[in-house]
């Protein structure tokens, strides 16, 4: 059978070319997924726990992949620094106040980094910037919280069991629940409470109406509280009362001063005993003189020389008193 080495060589060359093309396509796809052939900038973020984050895992903003994890380095016993390759296309949308958190791609997916926008305005992120981070709630924290919740639930269950046991063994409680009169009384009390509530509502509406009237200047109280003229009059009276009080205070001060100084007529009347005796004696003399004058006038009325004159004067005085009652002018 004749051999055709040229055809075999061609087939072998085609196989090698196709294999190399497949290999290059696979490498290109893998590199594109890892952002090896796109323009990127590197930023960093520090975490206390990366929760299994690996190099090459995705970095997402709003659920869209905008970069990959380039490097993970342990800085100290409590800080892990993550270097992120961020696509240049996403740079205008990632600001310097963005917050990076560790998350998962689904319930059981790979660990990823989620970027969230921060509060307020900030310039776009630049190469070498360090993003703020927020530590997510890890599985250990969830298990610890769940353990505490389980312990609390056990305690609550035991308490409920004791309470239900006491309720089941309480004869007074069951008698109270079976008492129909108690239900009627309770129903009547509720009706009374509803009526009292209605009365309170009516009273509150009345008070609201009264206060509204006072604000609008209606009624005596509204007039007193809103009339500006009355307020001015009251203010004027207050000022006059204050002035009178000041004057009285000054007068009393002057009187006290005169009493302390021992001068003036008031001191003479109140403190000088000799003057008091003289004044008392003068008043006694005036009283005696008035009594003597009265007796002299009685004697003159009985004197025949003046009796006619006095009678005419009495009649004249009587006519003057009777004239206004009769409507005629007195002569």
Can you put this structure into words, describing what you see?
The protein is of the alpha/beta class. Strands 1-4-3-2-6-5-7 form a 7-stranded mixed β-barrel. Strand 3 and strand 4 form a beta hairpin. The longest helix has 36 residues. It is elongated. 8% of the residues are buried.
Key attributes of the depicted protein:
331 residues, 9 helices, 7 strands
Shape: elongated
How would you classify the helix and strand content by structural class? alpha/beta
What is the multimeric organization of the chains shown? single chain
What is the CA-atom radius of gyration, in angstroms?
58 Å
What share of residues is helical?
55-70%
Summarize the helix and strand pattern as letters: HEEEEEEEHHHHHHHH
Spatial sequence of strands, sheet with the most strands: 1-4-3-2-6-5-7
Number of strands: 7
* Tally of DSSP helical segments: 9
How far is the first residue's CA from the last residue's CA? 190 Å
Strand content: 15-25%
Largest sheet: 7 strands, mixed, barrel
Mean pLDDT: 84
Poorly predicted sequence stretches spanning 5 or more consecutive residues: none
Question: Quick summary of this structure?
Answer:
The chain has about 325 residues and is an alpha/beta fold. It contains 9 helices and 7 strands.
């Amino acid at each position: 059978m004749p051999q055709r080495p040229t055809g075999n060589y061609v087939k072998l060359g085609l196989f090698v070319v196709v294999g190399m093309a497949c290999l290059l396509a696979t490498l290109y796809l893998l590199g594109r997924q890892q952002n090896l052939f796109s323009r990127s900038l590197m930023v960093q973020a520090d975490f206390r726990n990366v929760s299994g984050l690996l190099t090459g895992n995705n970095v997402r903003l709003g659920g869209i992949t905008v970069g990959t994890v380039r490097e993970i380095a342990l800085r100290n016993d409590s800080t892990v620094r993550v270097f992120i390759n961020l696509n240049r296309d996403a740079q205008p949308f990632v600001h310097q106040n963005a917050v990076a958190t560790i998350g998962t791609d689904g319930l059981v997916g790979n660990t990823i980094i989620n970027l969230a926008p921060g509060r307020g305005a900030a310039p776009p992120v630049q190469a070498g910037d360090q993003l703020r981070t927020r530590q997510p709630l890890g599985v250990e924290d969830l298990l610890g919280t769940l353990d505490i919740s389980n312990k609390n639930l056990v305690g609550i269950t035991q308490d409920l069991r004791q309470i239900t046991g006491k309720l089941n063994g309480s004869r007074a409680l069951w008698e109270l629940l079976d008492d129909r009169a108690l239900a009627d009384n309770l129903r009547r009390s509720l009706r009374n409470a509803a009526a009292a509530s209605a009365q309170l509502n009516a009273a509150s509406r009345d008070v609201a109406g009264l206060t509204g009237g006072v604000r609008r200047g209606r009624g005596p109280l509204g007039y007193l509280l809103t009339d500006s003229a009355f307020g001015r009059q009251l203010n004027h009276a207050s000022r006059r009362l204050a002035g009178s009080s000041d004057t009285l205070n000054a007068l009393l001060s002057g009187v006290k001063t005169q009493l302390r100084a021992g001068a003036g007529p008031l001191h003479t009347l109140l403190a000088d005993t000799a003057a008091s005796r003289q004044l008392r004696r003068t008043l006694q003399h005036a009283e005696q003189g008035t009594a003597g004058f009265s007796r002299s006038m009685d004697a003159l009325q009985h004197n025949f020389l003046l009796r006619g004159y006095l009678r005419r004067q009495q009649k004249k005085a009587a006519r003057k008193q009777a004239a206004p009652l009769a409507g005629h002018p007195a002569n």
